Amino acid sequence: MRLPRLATLIGVAGLLTTTDAAAQTVNAEALRRTQFDDGWSGDITGAFSFWRGNVDYLDVGAAGSLQYQTLYPHDEDDPVPYVRQRAYLASNGRFAERNASTFLSNAFAHARWTGMWHPVIGTELFAQYQYNEFLRLNRRILTGAGARVEALRLPEVLASFGTSYMLESERIDTEAAFPDDPETIAHRWSSYGVMRSTLFDDRLILQATIYYQPRFDDFSDHRVFTQFEGEATITEILSVGVNVMQMYDSRPPNDVTRLDLRMTNTVKLTLK
Description:
The chain is an all-beta fold and 272 residues long. It is built from no helices and 13 strands.
């Protein structure tokens, strides 16, 4: 059994990089070098900024994840063993204000269980809570169940996809100028695909993920989340990375833009 690892992020161009509370769904496939570790693994990220004087500024946030998984029997030198069972929990929160005016306030929690009853085919269950003040989102609660397929398993390239039914309950802030429905319940089809490539003896990892979530009764009401991640190892404890996320909602609340785009560069120090 492997104890959780503590990762400290240094010099990030944004605070929390692997997931974001603005996303339509948390990316449970986010890039992890410990993807094929048996047993427990996890990470914690946090930051705090405080200014007083000519500019009053406060920014505090934290993120963490915890995973437990078991693998199918495999040779010790097999770089891509098949996962038998995985339980995954991730959470994130951030608050920031400048001159007593809040400009960031969001949080989420996501739990997912994957049981592979065959090395390439399995079942997934998941649940999630989200809050984001600047998307006028008081809360979004969703739960779902579906199937996962390991489509390609090569030492250098992996590809997986999944499809699920998802029940979503959403409550938003309403204002006189924006007469949105304050609460909606939607039945969505949530599907994702992920491709991962490992190069130069595991020193460079590239990964692309896409989620597509239309309503069953109206496919023009859909959400799309895409994420590209890259991480390059410099030394045994030092790595650098890039993370590009795009989030699209075809029917956001009034006065909320449809498309969000974020790019973050990271320097990571891992204490083993």
